[in-house]
Automatic annotation (TrEMBL):
GO molecular function, one term: N-acyltransferase activity
Single GO cellular component term: plasma membrane
Gene source species: Gymnodinialimonas phycosphaerae
Name this protein carries in UniProt: Apolipoprotein N-acyltransferase
UniProt cross-references to PANTHER family, sorted A to Z: APOLIPOPROTEIN N-ACYLTRANSFERASE
CDD domains per the UniProt record, alphabetical: ALP_N-acyl_transferase
A Pfam family that the UniProt record links to this protein: LNT_N
Subcellular localization(s) per the UniProt record: Cell membrane
Gene giving rise to this polypeptide: lnt
Lineage: Bacteria, Pseudomonadati, Pseudomonadota, Alphaproteobacteria, Rhodobacterales
Domain CN hydrolase: 249-488
Family as reported in the entry's similarity comment: Belongs to the CN hydrolase family. Apolipoprotein N-acyltransferase subfamily.
Enzyme's top EC category: transferase
């Protein structure tokens, strides 16, 4: 009887030990949520670079020994922390018409954050499942983690309409040298490098002995390499500047006042007054929907614009447009070009529309209204387009939200010399949203090797050179103009030529190198073991 009791006690002790060693899901999810929230501090406007390895290493360590389902939940908690805080500024847009949409603000942001958190969850679940099925060294584990993360970010930028906001690589946007590798591998490729290097300290913590030293040295080498490559690009010569003088107008009209009929004349007069301040310019730039009406139908307004434009000068302005069709009137969000005669020279229609802002997905099925004023949903334009304007370098247009999509801003067949981003961030007040939006524009400049000129209604208007550096800016809430010389373009980057194929090449090269290194290490270990046995 005593022997049986002793046996039962051994079994109970073993069960209790296994329970104690089993990862606590709640604690791991809490760790994941906190790490995700930390990533928000790595993005503009704070850009605390030291927190990048802290956040991703914490997640990497927190996924140790987890099953597919548990890793999914930890990754989802990470995403909930990242997006719950990172896109909280979206709530501001619901309070523009608070009586209609204010009650939806918190549920909408919470629901969107929970949905977007699925993408980090997919990444962590994929990583945990593959890591659990086969033994791998720390280096391979970090590469698998970075690959899974980048694949999920790429999916987030493409599934449904896509939302590639706050990619991991945007933690580097305020640092001149580290952001330059995007010229070769794009923002998704730079996310791969960022997450790989950021996970290495976590791998070093879990390693021991010589392997810990190796992984630590690899982290330092990765940082040094990214910095060195970026510095070399910054030191290389750009093309000659085009000799074009810009004038950007920031009218700073509050969103709740912009479309009120009684404010229309005051809004238009403010833009004309700012545009005619002393100084010379070749191109005048107004933001998205700067003119609160259909400018091509308003002869008097065009005459007033013509009077404000010196001979040979061009105005690029955001305006709504409408076209009759057999199915009824079609509405477009456009940028139109006007000459000194007041005649429309050319135009561009936004092709990547904002869900629930410019159109309602599944209209007829969804009870949700559009958040923006208007007579109907906008119709998307045909896609990226390069415009030729008299006396100016070729220009690509990106209206507001379109600038956040890597590789989808420039027409691949007709490379422009600069990018004009007309936007209206008045929806987001003085939140962190405009700073994060500006970060996307800066990364497009690096990827394409082109200057990005940004005109925003309430800010942030900016002149960004082809290295992603801000040459001049008007901050949120400021009223005024920017007079500046257009920065020069650089020769086409590898990313501009090959797009996300460069990301695939980077991942394949990294995996080939890591697997070869891993095989060599295994061979040496096996050889050493055999020699010891035979000795």
């Amino acid at each position: 009887m005593d022997q049986r009791a002793a046996s039962d006690q051994v079994v109970k002790t073993e069960i209790l030990n296994r329970i104690a060693l089993r990862p606590c899901l709640l604690s791991r999810m809490t760790l994941g949520f906190a790490a995700g929230a930390l990533t928000v501090l790595t993005f503009p406007p704070l850009s605390i670079l030291l927190l990048v390895p802290v956040a991703y290493s914490a997640l990497f360590v927190g996924l140790r020994d987890l099953s597919f389902g548990r890793a999914f939940l930890v990754g989802w908690a990470f995403g909930l922390g990242q997006f719950g805080f990172g896109i909280s500024w979206i709530a501001e847009s619901f309070y523009v018409e608070a009586e209609r949409f204010g009650a939806m603000a918190i549920p909408a942001v919470a629901g969107l954050s929970a949905g977007l958190a699925i993408f980090p969850a997919i990444a962590t679940a994929l990583f945990a499942e593959i890591a659990r099925r086969g033994a791998m060294g720390s280096l391979l584990a970090c590469l698998l983690f970075a690959t899974s993360w980048t694949a999920a970010e790429w999916l987030r930028g493409h599934v449904l309409t896509g939302f590639p906001w706050n990619l991991a690589s945007y933690a580097l946007v305020d640092y001149a040298a580290p952001r330059q590798p995007a010229a070769w591998v794009g923002s998704y490729g730079l996310s791969f490098l960022t997450v790989f290097v950021a996970a290495l300290p976590g791998a070093a913590v879990m390693a021991s002995g010589r392997q810990r030293l190796t992984v630590s040295l690899m982290a330092l080498a990765g940082i040094a390499t990214m910095w060195a490559v970026g510095t070399l690009r910054l030191q290389s010569d750009a093309q000659q500047p085009p000799g074009v003088d810009l004038r950007i107008v920031q009218g700073n009209i509050p969103q709740e006042e912009k479309w009120a009929p009684e404010n229309r004349e005051a809004t238009f007069a403010r833009y004309l007054e700012l545009s005619t301040q002393p100084g010379d310019f070749d191109v005048l730039l107004w933001p998205e929907t700067a003119f609160p009406g259909f400018l091509d139908e308003d002869t008097e307004a065009r005459d007033r614009i013509a009077a404000a434009l010196p001979d040979g000068r061009v105005l690029l302005t955001g305006v709504p447009d409408r076209v009759p069709s057999e199915d009824g009137t079609r509405y477009f969000n456009t940028v139109q070009a006007f000459g000194a005669t007041g005649r429309i020279l050319t135009g561009y229609a936004k092709h990547h529309l904002v869900p629930f802002g410019e159109y309602v997905p599944f209209r007829g099925w969804s009870p949700i209204e559009r958040l923006t004023a208007g007579l109907g949903d906008f119709t998307p334009g045909p896609g990226p387009r390069t415009l030729a304007l008299p006396g100016l370098p070729l220009v690509a247009l990106a209206i507001c939200y379109e600038i956040i999509f890597p590789g989808h801003v420039v027409d691949d067949l007709f490379r422009p010399d600069w990018i004009f981003n007309a936007t209206n961030d008045a929806w987001f007040g003085t939140s962190i949203g405009p700073e994060q939006h500006l970060a996307s524009a800066r990364m497009r400049a690096v990827e394409e090797g082109l200057p990005v000129i940004r005109a925003a209604n309430t800010g942030i208007s900016a002149v960004i050179d082809a290295n992603g550096e801000i040459v001049a800016r008007l901050d949120t809430g400021e009223t005024g103009i920017i007079d500046a010389r257009m920065p020069s373009a650089r020769p086409p980057t590898l990313y501009a030529s090959f797009g996300d194929w460069m990301l695939l090449a980077l991942i394949l090269a990294s995996w080939s190198w890591a697997m070869a290194a891993n095989a060599t290490a295994r061979y040496r270990h096996m050889r050493k073991t055999v020699m010891q046995r035979c000795g």
